[in-house]
Write a structure and sequence with these properties.
6 helices, about 170 residues, single chain, mainly alpha, about 65% helix
Length: about 170
């Protein structure tokens, strides 16, 4: 793990990153930004069984079961949670909770705002009931906000209790 545990200021910010998390995030982003379109194009020009199999994995399953494509969003939320521990954890350890809360609210608002903008809420003329307020980016922003609040306000035992309550409630 490529992390500077002592907070040495001579170590660059890039050297403190966890390469495996960055690699997995890059892999996830590859699929999020449209690699499925690349596979769909290959499917149209190719009759190889492996291309067909990969293309099938990049379609949503209506309800029962799941394909690879259905794991892209949960993987991103998982990576966001892992990153939250490192980014907010450092600020929490330094004792600057106000800064951590501000960062949390700012990033959440940015994600939610970008999602609303992406789905065209500002350009639509057909009324607010047609806006898509709960798209993928908004969900990521909401998950980040609430998971960050739990992380900042509870210790490990409290986080575990929240986890059990959420899973039990679900």
């Amino acid at each position: 793990m490529n992390v500077d545990a002592q907070g040495d200021s001579s170590v660059t910010k890039a050297a403190r990153r966890i390469v495996s998390v960055d690699a997995l995030r890059g892999f996830d982003m590859f699929w999020i930004v449209g690699a499925d379109s690349l596979v769909a194009g290959l499917r149209q020009v190719s009759d190889y069984p492996v291309v067909e199999t990969v293309a099938e994995q990049l379609e949503h399953v209506p309800w029962t079961g799941f394909h690879f494509y259905d794991l892209i969003f949960p993987l991103f939320v998982f990576l966001m949670g892992v990153s939250t521990v490192f980014s907010l954890g450092r600020t929490k350890r330094e004792g600057d909770l106000r800064k951590a809360y501000w960062r949390l609210v700012k990033r959440s608002a940015l994600l939610i705002g970008l999602g609303i903008f992406y789905y065209g809420a500002l350009q639509r003329d057909d009324g607010p009931e047609q806006y898509r307020f709960v798209g993928v980016l908004q969900r990521i922003g909401i998950c980040y906000l609430f998971s960050g609040l739990v992380f900042l306000n509870f210790r490990a035992k409290g986080i575990f209790v929240v986890l059990v309550l959420l899973l039990g409630g679900y």
